[in-house]
Amino acid sequence: MSTESSMKDAFSTYADYLNNFNEKRERVVKVSRDITMNSKKVIFQVHRLSKDNKEEVLEKAGKDLEAVRDQHFARLMKELQGTDFWKLRRAYSPGVQEYVEAATFYKFCLSGTLCTLDEINTTLVPLSDPSLEPLQINILDYILGLADLTGELMRMAIGRISDGEIEFAQRICQFVRQIHRELMLVVPKMDDSYDMKSKMEVMLQSVIKIENACFSVHVRGLEYIPLLGDNAPTSYLLGAADVE
Question: Which GO terms describe its cellular component (predicted)?
Fold first, then answer.
């Protein structure tokens, strides 16, 4: 009887652990979805950027990014801190990747530079319990988010070309090329990852699209003239007739 009783106690303990773990997982999935949704809003806000509203758009995007971090990311860290968070990585990874994408997209449009993993993790330290080891974004989720960034930059580059901001599109092209080149050196040394392989293929397509768009503008440059009454050197009108 004692053996049977001890087995029941052991299985009861396991059942409690699994139930608590599954409940935590559901909460983490919910928070990850909230992070994803609100990070997408930051990305959409940054896409409203133009040469006429840069300060206004980026100021709002910066505040929205802070809200994602302080409200939703703080909830995620509260759930994961002090636990075996690596067991729940699949549950929260999509939200973290989207946050990385939003943070790096915002930083590039603000300063033309890449927001590093250390910079992102530094902003998360104040959200952690000082008595515990701070929860940090891991390198894989950062790289996966960085791969997604190139897609947003491709869309922005095409939009800027349409608006006549050719130089900005060319800077984006150079930046995306550099990211792709560096990741090509890193990915072969990573463990087998289907997500990373598929994103590298999509990234290459983004690079090609930006290059083709910039190349087309360069080749057909003689067909473009400055907009009438506009002194901006990067504003162009395709196919306009010569003006005496």
Answer: cytoplasm; nucleus
